[in-house]
């Protein structure tokens, strides 16, 4: 099912971005600010997309 595949990819991408953000944290201050802000914005967008996919799945799922 395409929704399940999309969910797995979103979760995987979220985990990878979270790990990258943790690696960037100890970076030099000037570089860190620019990279951290970009990663945080991307992670926020990814999480928003993930919520939308899960919400969409709930809306189209048959009721038991």
How does this model look, in words?
The protein has 64 residues and is mainly alpha-helical. It has one domain (2-55). Helix content is 86%, strand content 0%. It has helices at 2-24, 29-60. Helix 1 (2-24) packs antiparallel against helix 2. The longest helix has 32 residues, at 29-60. The protein starts with a helix and ends with a helix. The mean pLDDT is 80.
Quick overview:
The protein is mainly alpha-helical and 64 residues long. It is built from 2 helices and no strands.
Q: Largest sheet, if any? A: none
Order of helical and strand elements: HH
DSSP helical segment count: 2
In total, how many beta strands? 0
- Our measurement of the CA-to-CA distance between the termini, rounded to an integer number of angstroms, reads 19 Å
Q: Could you estimate the helical fraction of the residues in percent?
A: over 70%
- Counting structural domains, the number is 1
Shape: elongated
DSSP strand content: under 5%
- Low-pLDDT stretches are none
Name the structural class. Answer: mainly alpha
The overall pLDDT average reads: 80
Q: Over the alpha carbons, how many angstroms does the gyration radius reach?
A: 15 Å
